[in-house]
Amino acid sequence: MAMNLNMAGGAQGMMKEGSTLADGVDEAVLKNIGATKQLAKIVQSSLGPNGMKKLIINHLGKTLVSSDCGTIARELEVVHPAAQMVSMASAAQDSEVGDGTNLVVSFSGELLKLAEELLRTGLHTSEIVQGYELAYAECVRVLPELEIARVKNVRDANEVAKAIEPVVAAKHEGVEGILSKVIADACVAVLPPAPEAPILKADQVRIAKLRGGDVASSTMMKGMIVMRPSETTVQQLEDRSKVVAFNCGVEMATTETKGTVLIRTADELINYNKSEERALEAIVKEIADSGVKLVISGGSVSEMAVHFLEKYQLMCLKITSKWELRRLCGATGCTALVRLGAPTPEEMGSVSKVTTKELGGRTVTVLEQLGDAQTKIATVVLRAATASLIDDLERAVDDGVNAVRMLCKDPRLLAGGGACEMELSKRLRDYCEQSQGMDHYALAKFADAFEVVPRALAETSGLDQTKVIAELRDQHAAGDATAGVDLAATLSGGGTGAPVRDGYAVKESALRLAVDAAVTVLRVDQIIMSKPAGGPKGK
Q1: Looking at the whole model, is its pTM more than 0.70?
Q2: Domain 20-148+415-526 belongs to what architecture?
Q3: What is the pLDDT of residues 52-85, one digit of tens each?
Q4: SS (H, E, C) 290-355
Q5: What fold does the segment set 152-223+370-410 form as a domain?
């Protein structure tokens, strides 16, 4: 019997018809490098406070205007596998640290661009990889020595605000003074009291976006804003009211199994309805007698329940999201109950003040904790004229909150404005001179790659890149480790004003992920694509 064999030679014959294989330096490695260079080129111009914004229209037709690299990389929907690796490294930085995503993409793109030059001169990929890994190990050793300051007390809002100002300014220059103060107050408000370790979770600071007004009218409050009014006519509570939360709806419970009730007469029907009413009234009365003033429902609230809640002068809020309910429990200190009934004192929470007001054309309920009252949730109320601006401000606030979160873990600060990168570049060049062998070339290129940060900052600020880099090199050679590109488009250093500062943990994580992404791309020597599956192609 004749066998149906594809008789094509080589690797192509091994795979099914329609598959493609890219092999070698020219076909695979350089193509991969080309794709990552393009991605780095897109995001580089958005680095720093004077960075340019990108207008992206995603597949749903939503328009985004942002300079946040994490958002840009996510919305671009990169399909090239090598560029995807760099994009995934950026996403990992965003989820782990929340800031420094642009450094990951820009630095890995620059490492690969310089690796391309070495490949063209005849160096082998493994030699470049080895050199890069040596250089990274040296950076990890040197980085702790570049610490210039620490946040001494993360519970001091003023000190925290100063530390996160550069982070907010990098996303939205001009409002960093207002926003960093609001963010710092919100973060400090939700930190556990003094004996406990200061641990902050990013979801403890909520953002309420209300169109209208300007950024200066943005505020912070201890507690939460619920984007709907009360279900009853009671719209306001004062004087530390007790709160109960239910995971279920406030209505008569229905049986899980199908049941049948045989009703023979009209009296039986009336009695049946009345017994339901009496049971529901008894439950609401129990809740009111326990001292509760605010009922939070995790499901629907029946009209009959509203009637009895009105009778006993209780305020009721309907929450459709279980995550929102969980946050409300955190803000008020209550436990969500799974069945209707009077809560025990341990299950109840409390809130200092509840008001229903109109903000930005929407009726909202504000649950606020005043004075020394403890809360696990704080809300930043953002105000701005347009939807795209308010979305961009939200991303700046997210970065600020994540910066505080990392400062709680590691309070060390490094010189910013490209100063830390220039100093690492200088130290690596000194280390490179001691190196013998082929690693020397890769080490020198790794040192050059660091200059991408001050170069991008100079470019976006409208400065002469060559002049800036030359001056910075001279200053660092003279021993000024804090010289970088400052906001005023001049060179700062040597203590002339407060230098821009970056978080240590952010920088360390960004370097690690950038090097990992670059090395992974360099190690790929073949691209194998199977024949695409049949069927209609997606639009």
Answers
A1: yes
A2: Orthogonal Bundle (1.10)
A3: 888 888 888 888 888 888 888 888 888 888 888 8
A4: CCEEEEEECCCECHHHHHHHHHCCCEEEECCCHHHHHHHHHHHCCCEECCCCCCCCCCCEEECEEE
A5: GROEL; domain 2 (3.30.260)
